[in-house]
């Protein structure tokens, strides 16, 4: 019997604005262990690429 499909979407994928607000709160409170570093780094890199293009 196949197992039920589990929704593995991260907050980054499901609610971007909420992800930003939560990430900012974590950074301000210095809760570095629970920051979504992979997606945060990707966003900062994307911002840099956008700035270079403009």
Task: Tell me what you see in this structure.
The radius of gyration is 15 Å and the shape is extended. The protein is mainly α and 54 residues long. It has one domain.
Mean pLDDT: 91
Largest sheet: none
Q: SS-based structural class?
A: mainly alpha
What is the percent of helical residues?
55-70%
Low-confidence stretches: none
Task: Give the SSE string.
Answer: HHH
Helical region count? 3
Query: How many strand elements?
Result: 0
* Count of spatially separate domains: 1
Give the strand content: under 5%
Q: Could you tell me how far the N terminus lies from the C terminus, measured between alpha carbons in angstroms?
A: 54 Å
Helix and strand arrangement:
Layout: H1 11-14, H2 16-28, H3 37-53
Give a quick precis of the structure.
With 54 residues, the protein is mostly helical.
List its salient traits:
63% helix, single chain, 3 helices, mainly alpha, 54 residues
